[in-house]
Amino acid sequence: MVTYSSFLSSLVDIECIKFGNFTLKSGQQSPIYIDLRELVSYPNLLQDLAILFQEKIPNNIDRVCGVPYAALPMATAISLHNHLPMLIKRKEAKSYGGKKIIEGKFNKGDKIILIEDVITSGISLEETIVELETEGLVIEKILVVLNREQGGVEKLQQKGYNVEALFSMSSLMQVLHQENKIEENVYQSVINFLAASQIVSSKKNEEHFHLPVTHKNHKAQQLLDIAHAKKSSIIASVDLTTTQAILDFLDKIGKNICAAKLHIDIVSDFTEQFITDLKNLSQQHNFMLIEDRKFADIGNTQLLQISKGIHHISSWADFVTIHVIAGEASLKAIEDWNEENKPALIPILEMSSKGALTDAHYIAKCKEFIGKYNCVVGAVCQSTKLDNPLLKFTPGIHLSASGDSKGQQFNTPQFAIEKQHSHFLIIGRGLYEAEHPEIALQNYLSAVQSTGVFG
Ligand code: 5BU
Predict the structure, then answer these.
(1) With 296 labelled, which of 101, 247, 345, 358 sits at a CA distance of 20 to 30 A?
(2) Whole-angstrom Cα distance, residue 256 to residue 234?
(3) Could you give the CA distance from residue 253 to residue 438 in angstroms, rounded to a whole number?
(4) Are 163 and 156 in contact (CB under 8 A)?
């Protein structure tokens, strides 16, 4: 059975990925060279690629379209594997016989999946998209083998296209490193090279929105310190229901997140030992703990809910979420609570779900008082702007889905950071439902870091 890492290892074996000293088209010197055109000579690997892509193909697709040359055999493999009719987008229109730009049968309005080998700045894909749309085709999704992390994916996503890459340069390097496919010094030189080229490409953009460095609340300060140290403002929402599944998942991704958010009341086999294990893991991988309990009662009951019961949340959670529907006094009760290591509060101002009742009036009323309390570090919201020093936590983040069938609405990490100025991104199913959460996390991290939020 093909896996992401076995596929990448094969790409190194057949020298589609090479390490050394190469001069790129731009004249730049690079320690890594990737050319996926050679794949055409390896039918087994093309078949593997089709298998890896299979889960990323939506159900409603009418045609698969390949762009010459590297993506042609890939699109063919996908077409055969999924019994999807294929189209070819010519490089230049034929100069005879009707100047056709697309080969193959299609109808206007057909939904297509566009296959590309590599995306860099996205310019050539943009040109292709215009040509296909002019022919009346609807680009439902764009699948790319490699995201070179030079802004192309983000640019197309901002234009509303659903783009997904199998690998990014960073995730690819991480996998090869973990698989011992490359020497440590080669790994380091490529990582340095990638970091430098990302800085160059991000500097081409205008002013960035930055994650603050300091905060008056010590828990918020700790969260910011971790985020900057790891260059990750990602909070994993671990909505898994058994203790082992939660611990296993966090052990895999813990080193690249700044916090884990739990719903402790969905854990079916909760034990005291779980809290011990969770805390140990959070120390081992240096991430903080958020309980998304969404308290919504009078002050006195909330204090009991936070500190008592089998979950005794205040003994382990660094932060808890809270609705301030019960009014300012319910918040003040927690501020006045004389408990040294009480969790900091993240009030919910605006929910991500369709038809949420958190309207502008409600949000404005909440904003009138939440900033007064030292125990409040920020708020959960979507497009609502928050005043300094409140930190913005945004759930409803996914790289490839726009929502679910139960009301959730997703935005991309780039949208949340660049357009909504979110400080921390809360990601659930995008990570824990991924076949390889570590690789998925790398893709989310690349998207976050490409915004320049870390300066
Ligand atoms: P998802 O799998 O990425 O959709 O998970 C999102 C998580 O964030 C999940 O635990 C929700 O309960 C939580 N959430 C949310 O999605 N939207 C909100 O407005 C709030 C919390 Br508040």
Answers:
(1) 247
(2) 8
(3) 6
(4) yes
Write the single-letter amino acid at 219. K
- What DSSP line would sit under 52-78, residue for residue? HHHTTS-TT--EEEE-TTTHHHHHHHH
Q: Which two tokens stand for residue 316?
A: 């382990």
Closest to 450 (Cα-Cα) out of 173, 200, 146: 200
Show the tokens assigned to 369.
């008082």
Rg (CA), the chain: 24
User: 4-203 is classed in which CATH architecture?
Assistant: 3-Layer(aba) Sandwich (3.40)
Contact, 410 vs 403, CB < 8 A?
yes
The strand order across the sheet containing 288-295 reads 344-347, 319-322, 288-295, 259-262, 234-237, 424-427, 391-394, 378-380
Q: Give the SS3 label for residue 46.
A: helix
The packing angle between helices 243-253 and 437-450, to 10°, is 50
Tokens of 329: 């006094």
What residue ranges of the chain are covered by domains with CATH 3.40.50.2020? 4-203
Pick the closest to residue 150 from 174, 187, 118, 177 (CA basis): 118
| pLDDT tens readout for residues 26-56 | 667 889 999 999 999 999 999 999 999 998 9
Cβ–ligand 1 contact at 351 (below 6 Å): yes
Contact yes or no for 234/261 (Cβ under 8 A): no
- 281-325 pLDDT, tens digit each: 999 999 999 999 999 999 999 999 999 999 999 999 999 999 999
| Ligand 1 centroid, distance to 191 Cα (angstroms) | 33
Could you tell me the distance, in angstroms and rounded to a whole number, from the CA of residue 279 to the centre of ligand 1?
22
Residue 69, preceding peptide bond in cis (omega within 30° of 0) = yes
The CATH fold of domain 218-449: TIM Barrel (3.20.20)
- For the question of whether the overall pTM of this predicted structure is more than 0.85, the answer is no
Q: Please give the Cα distance from 365 to 159 (Å, whole number).
A: 34
What is the whole-number distance in angstroms between the Cα of residue 394 and the centre of ligand 1? 9
For residue 232, give the nearest of 285, 189, 193 by alpha carbon: 285
What Å distances lie between residue 324 and 13, 111, 289, CA to CA? 58, 45, 21
pLDDT (average), residues 408-419: 91
Q: Which residues are catalytic?
A: 294
pLDDT tens per residue, range 129-171 = 888 888 899 999 999 999 988 888 888 888 889 999 999 888 8
Contact criterion met (CB below 8 Å) for 355 and 373:
no
Residue limits of CATH 3.20.20.70 in the chain: 218-449
Ligand 1 atom nearest to 427, measured from its CA: 3
